[in-house]
Write the structure tokens for this entry.
Amino acid sequence: MNALAGIRWGSATAAYQIEGAVDRGGRVPTIWDLFTAKPGTTTRGDTGADACRAYDNPEPMLDAIDWLGIDTYRLSVAWSRVISGPDGATNPEGIAYYRRVLQGLHDRGVTPAVTLYHWDLPQWLQERGGWASLETAAAFVHFAVTAVRELGDLVRDWITINEPFCAAFHGHLSGLHAPGIRDEAIALRAALVQLHAHGEAVRAIRAVAPGARLGLAMNLSDLEAASDSVEDLAALQRADLVENRLFLHTVLQGRLPDDAVDYFGADAVGAAVEGIDVARITERLDFIGINYYEHNVIRAADTDNDLVVRGIEKLPVPEPRSANGVAVRPDGFTRVLLRVAELAPELPIWVTENGIGLWDYLAPDGRCNDVERVTFIDQYLDALADAVSNGANVEAYYFWALTDNFEWSHGYQLRYGVFYTDYPTGRFIPKASAERFRARIADERNGATNRAKNTVRRDGAAA
Ligand code: IFM
């Protein structure tokens, strides 16, 4: 039996990364609009003002989805397009746009999965405290219920929050993401308020849409210690606490990991959970979304080398690695999936993201021969099959991303799509990886996987 025969195949994007039209259709400003307007926050000063122009014309992207032959497409709805402002009013233009996209998916036989929060917080909420404030959690529940009421006839699968780790610790500690705050206590509070918002939203959505399938998407890292020394093993635990367990264990077990107080301090933890019943974060889920990118080797360090975790250093990543230095470690993907399966054996896993950032370009023949991504797809789908064969209950796999798009602080140069976005013309050109992903999922459906490794170099010559 082919391990991947039952998987639902998909690809993913998010609103701010593809839509553009930030000042049209009744959309209100978000923290990313303000952040990217500040000099030095993104490569070359890129912003999401235009992105892939999906708001003005969603059809080319829908056609790309159709071409790829996927079962399901993960998109996010922008809070700032759905809710007009502090009075909580619904914006009909925003709803009409998402209904058009969702209907376009259904017309092509593709099932949508919709993320409610993919980092684009309305600025008016930031001005009232952002994710450090429980008011944001209450507003999120209102937005979530509004989106489900308005779109629920077209959407069954909802992801409450994408990568709360990044929104908390890159938004509020490393400062690499909007709103660009650098304060550990605020970052911890932002993590807990997001998890609280997730739990409250799950309960509120179930009340209005009992048939909805609900989960959240966490990015988890595969971490190993540089040595067996007591110091390196302790450093590994610190990194694992902040990057993984703070989210994974709190959501699944309804209590903070035991070492959270040791690491963050009792005062910071007390302030972070103020007004929050941590036990209620654990609410029945229909799936857990896992975004897998990172494998790191952790060493103890006296100075704070890492922008997020104190007293650790991440060792330089050997080849093969992505253009932005992320290790290509499919074995780490298998380990992360099996770790989640061990913690929550009954809970279906959806791989809500997996992908690689490269400096892709079009060759003179107009094609993008992204051989590293082709190899990545083969290796990571083999790793997925290993996890499934060893007991991970994986139901869906979404490749990040469908098209190149606005890659946050990296702007547009770092590309993740299986379609090359030609920004000047708005065309989406299938890369070699799109052809490989399409062929591979067709093979997997037919139970006839061709695990042949890629043997073509980026210049097109045989290796
Ligand atoms: O582009 C991002 C996405 O928005 C969240 N997960 C990681 C991707 C690649 O960095």
